[in-house]
Protein: 4-aminobutyrate aminotransferase
Organism: Brucella abortus
Amino acid sequence: MSGNQELIARRERLLGRNMSLFYQDPVHLVKGEGVWLWDADGRKYLDCYNNVPHVGHCHPRVVEAICRQASTLNTHTRYLHEGILDYVERLTATFDKSLDAAILTCTGSEANDVALRMAQAVTGKTGIIATDFTYHGNTTAVSQLSTRMPPVGGYGGHVRHVPAPDSYRPLGGKGGEAFAQAWAAEVEKTIASLQESPFGFSGLIIDPFFANEGFPDLPENFLAPAVAAVRKAGGVVIADEVQPGFGRTGGHMWGHQKAGIVPDIVTLGKPMGNGHPVGAVVAGADTLNAFRKAFRYFNTFGGNPVSCAAAMAVLDVLEEEKLQANALEVGAYARQGLEKLAQKHGMIGNVRGSGLFFGAELVLDRAEKLRRQRWPRGL
């Protein structure tokens, strides 16, 4: 039995067979540095996937900040400490002025769980709308939001799903403003369904870049009609920025800024501490106060000094190394290369994305899509 096979067998015995691994031939990683990873055989890999070490594997600034704070103090937030306050001040300065306060958690799953309860506290309702094929985490409440794996016992009556926008196959076969209005109509219809139910309507939760749904190239202000419908119905808009946030899209610090909207609640996770467990829920002070009145909430490790030191170091590196501008420049170069490949290979339906958040849609037959588009016009 090879070394990897022994590790896999041991892993399955200790962690269970459902603990998933990447690739048919899993990789045994032993070292990371910047954009590079090394396996146990010394093979070097360019890491084009990992969305957790946002400023690079083992960035010395982040490692040093963690070690320095861990050697001084680590405790929970029921003691006074400047670290969490300094970080929240700096973090909220990157948002619209209406988003001026935060609760820190350990994970994005926890952040989204809290965000759902914030929406309930503000509206007095529990009904929530999410897009299909999304992913917002794995708590009991948040796992209800994804259609990829129906929860045990099925979906609660308070959860509704709308189709995620698809720029390659837009609703009604139209793009531009018509596409935006068609998607908003789906949201409005679903809001009405919840309003007629005992649950009422508390809000819409989306990844503003629709990362798990293939990050469609959407027209400018695409989300505006849907956001207006949510607010007209008395609901709140929750933007899950776990994946598109912290400058990954290049032109903007946050995905909702690129989309041209200001959400009521923003959730953060994965890249926030470059791999150190930390997440956040950012909202207005009034929203946080409503949440505190409605729910007794405390997170033992959320916002601890070591996590805040790691998160602050990430912001330092983003700013000092101009990584947002770098994402825009390098991402544009890589996307151009993919677009050239698409011209040569029909299996690439299109290339889309922004900054260092881009990809290609692989299709069975691009010509068939064109034929279907022209058929109604008699071609």
